[in-house]
Amino acid sequence: MTGQRDRWAELTGGQAGEEYAQRFARLAESGHDIHGEASFCAALLEPASRVLDAGCGTGRIAIRLAELGHHCTGVDVDASMLAVARREAPAQDWLLGDLARLDALGLDPGFDLVLAAGNVIPLLAPGTGARVVGHLAAALRPGGLLVTGMGLDAAHLPLDEAPMTITEFDRWCAGAGLTLRQRCATWNGDPYDDGGYAVSVHTRPAA
What is the model's pLDDT at position 35? Predict the structure, then answer.
């Protein structure tokens, strides 16, 4: 751990796993598509790709990508969320760890895609964003993709205000050697319109 609590822990106390899982179960039962993130990522991947779900939560996305034939590893700092993931998919790799110290987990690098969905980046501990992006970039193979989804205003975040701008995030990515390939307003691929939510695809240049 970094010694500083991330914003997610401040909001939930680290006990939100079951409630979070139930919310998505209710959405699925009511007919909502809860696999938008997984579908977006799958469209970018070759068959049987390696995926790191950074801030995987209850494993909803990683489990779906595994069902589609990809090899997924999930990392999260919230043990209550990982407990759900391990129950739902015990054969998958789920690691408890702080993204600000991702290098301490002993992961084999060379992932085809690293995903940070669900407002993972805005909910990091203050002051750790650039470091986390650097670790996520280092986990990619040359030519690999960092895919992120995040709110950029209070309407799209469980916060009173956004702790960062998209320009600042792009600066962190550039500092980690990544270049922007695509940006959308939704996981359905709608064009980005400078609104309050952004789905971004950055790439690590090929060697």
Answer: 83
Longest dimension (CA), the chain: 46
Name beta bridge partners: 53: 74, 115
pLDDT tens digit sequence for 2-35: 445 665 555 565 556 557 556 655 656 777 766 8
Report CA-CA distances (Å) from 24 to 21, 58, 137, 163.
Answer: 5, 10, 29, 26
The neighbour count for residue 62, using CB atoms within 10 Å, is: 29
Q: Distance (Å, rounded) from C-alpha 111 to C-alpha 23? A: 30
Backbone φ and ψ for 150, nearest 5 degrees, come out as -155, 145
Residue keyed to tokens 């009511």: 30
pTM of the model: 0.88
Residue 93: its H or E element: strand 93-96
What's the CA gap between 5 and 100, in Å, rounded? 11
Spatial separation of the C-alpha atoms in residues 145 and 159, rounded to whole Å? 28
Q: What is the CA radius of gyration of the chain?
A: 16
Stretches in the chain below the pLDDT threshold 70: 1-18, 20-28, 33-34
Report CA-CA distances (Å) from 68 to 42, 45, 89, 142, 186: 8, 11, 14, 23, 21
